[in-house]
């Protein structure tokens, strides 16, 4: 098996994955702190800027965009970046809204780029039945001959979804898990992403050798940060798989 993929995290859900000769960027968010109106007097508030200038990223082969409808997954500067990227893989509805180089994928549909296969996988952005409110979301699995399996969860709160992915692709070498226990008050304040304990359980289900958490800082509605992640993985006996900067 080839070397472990490089994953560099830039705050929020944004990470650069170097895998099989490709440079893949997850949900790009680089704006300065500020408020994003969501209607009905509600806001999502960004509290920290990204840790990299998009101009310093170098060439990106593709963006892996879990969904385009929420600013904590695609903000203004992220949208601007998409115009300079040769391919954006996202939901089918997202591709229609974004246009340009965006390509929509249904869950379990894959595309090939060189030796790498990028497969869209299900994600559930909240409790059962959430889709009419939170919208269509996907995650991604990266595979290739002689390459380790990489899972990018996207905004997923469901361990049942993780079990389905593990059945097809497990064990996983590297899991990039969107954590943070996101809550905005909808669905009686139910989880919209994995919290720390569920992230640790997802790692166990996947048989993950390494977990790189994202989506746990830089936004006010992320309710669990670095310390709860460390505590949850330690409690699960998985401290050695957690990779935090």
Descriptive account of the structure:
By secondary structure, the protein is of the alpha/beta class. 20% of the residues lie in helices and 26% in strands. The protein contains 6 helices and 14 strands. A 6-stranded mixed beta sheet has the order 1-2-3-6-7-8, with helices on one face. A 6-stranded mixed beta sheet has the order 9-10-11-12-13-14, covered by helices on one side. Strands 4-5 form a two-stranded antiparallel sheet. A hairpin with a 6-residue loop joins strand 11 (138-143) and strand 12. Helix 4 packs parallel to helix 5 (196-206) and helix 5 crosses helix 6. It is globular. It starts with 5 loop residues before the first strand and ends in a 10-residue tail after the last helix.
């Amino acid at each position: 098996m080839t070397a472990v993929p490089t994953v560099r995290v830039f705050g929020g859900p944004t990470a650069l994955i170097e895998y099989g000769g490709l440079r893949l960027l997850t949900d790009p968010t680089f704006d300065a702190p500020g408020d994003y109106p969501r209607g009905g007097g509600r806001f999502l508030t960004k509290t920290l800027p990204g840790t990299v200038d998009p101009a310093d990223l170098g060439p990106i082969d593709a963006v892996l965009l879990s969904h385009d409808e929420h600013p904590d997954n695609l903000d203004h500067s992220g949208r601007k970046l998409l115009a300079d990227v040769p391919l954006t893989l996202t939901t089918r509805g997202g591709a229609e809204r974004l246009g340009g180089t965006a390509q929509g994928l249904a869950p379990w549909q894959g595309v090939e780029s060189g030796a790498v296969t990028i497969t869209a996988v299900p994600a559930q952005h909240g409790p059962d039945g959430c889709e009419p409110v939170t919208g269509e979301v996907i995650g991604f699995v990266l595979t290739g001959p002689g390459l380790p399996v990489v899972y990018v969860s996207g905004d997923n709160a469901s361990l049942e979804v993780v079990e389905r992915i593990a059945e097809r692709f497990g064990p996983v070498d590297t899991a990039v898990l969107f954590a943070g226990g996101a809550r905005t008050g909808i669905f009686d304040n139910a989880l919209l992403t994995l919290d720390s304990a569920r992230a640790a359980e997802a790692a166990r289900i996947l048989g993950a050798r390494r977990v790189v958490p994202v989506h746990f800082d830089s936004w006010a509605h992320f309710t669990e940060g670095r310390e709860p992640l460390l505590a949850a993985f330690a409690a699960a006996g998985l401290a050695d798989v957690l990779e935090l900067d």
